# Entry
Amino acid sequence: MWTRARFLLVVALVAPLAAAGLPTPESVLGFRPGADYKLATYEQSLDYFKKLAATTKHMKLVEAGKTSQGRPMTFALISSPDNLAKIDHYREIARRLAHPQGLTDAEAHRLAREGRAFVHIDGGLHSTEVAGAQHTPQLAYDLVSRTSDPDVKAILDNVVLMLWPTINPDGQQIVAEWYMKNVGTPYELSGLPRLYQEYVGHDNNRDAYMLNMVESRVLEHTWRQWEPQIIYVHHQSGPFPTRIWLPPFSEPVGIEAPYVISREVNMIGMAIAKGLEEHGQVGATHMGTAFDAWYPGYVDYAPNFKNIAAFWTETALFQYATPHTYTIDDFPQNMRDLREQSLYSSPWPPGLWRLRDAVDYMETASLSVLEFAAKYKESLLYDRYQSGRDQIALGQKKAPYAYIVPREQRDPVA
# Structure
């Protein structure tokens, strides 16, 4: 259980050891992730990932491809040294369970027991939602600097984390440079005067079924190489005044997603909420009317149709790294009584909200997902197989079996 007291005790015990061998984020970035009026660029984040990986046996870097502007799309594999030494073996287990043809249930159970859970977590792709990309260096450091903590050890023994600093490197670079250029001027909160991803901007996460963008193709290619069981993408713009929105999704949801995968997503959302309450981080909410899962092409939902528990969260955002104080008068009239609700059980009172607060909420959420994956590792792997097995069987007896496109049509080129 991630209690705040235990966290502070562990940090106090390992800090001298960590300082001796592992670079802290602030030692490389020049400031603590989430600091007021500070944003790390992608180049700074990647530089930190490289320096951290060079000092620990718990982290390896993989370059997955290039962005539209030619930057490397890099992610870190974070796990135990033993798991990393056998990473190709565990990856093949994940790939075999993802393609269940020819497997028996007994064989799948054996592989699920032997395998490791692969979990993709990233710093987001909507680059003006800045906290996601600021939390990933902190998450990487806190995992590899606390390897003797029993909770972290359980994660590292059972999970292989695929941690991406961001999945929109060009955007992080553009937004951070723009904000840092304008901090302290009348234009500090001004909007970005260009798209933060070439051609598509904010619609980059709607490209998962078309794969028009090279960044989308890099992600899809990587997922097919590694076949993670969980994909978690961080967003910001939680419904005000709540502090973070979590699954279950609003209605309507994708009706063709495997049932057990949808249940996993709901369980993970509740596991995150529990972790936040254990840290005293109030204000989590679920469902509502804002974030449904009907559109089948979100990069953070489309993998559900490929038997992967994929989802996003929405953490509260003010603007960039500028802090802001809210009063009760800012709240909607019907929420000023701070009344507890079934899916909003710990209302957030008004007050100061900093980028660091969002970073802390995101790190708790990420750690809660990893804790869930460690505890339910075997179920995650077997459910991936079972969903694929059942979907194949369903496709053999339920229409449509195929789409027929006539040669004579109004638009032959399309």
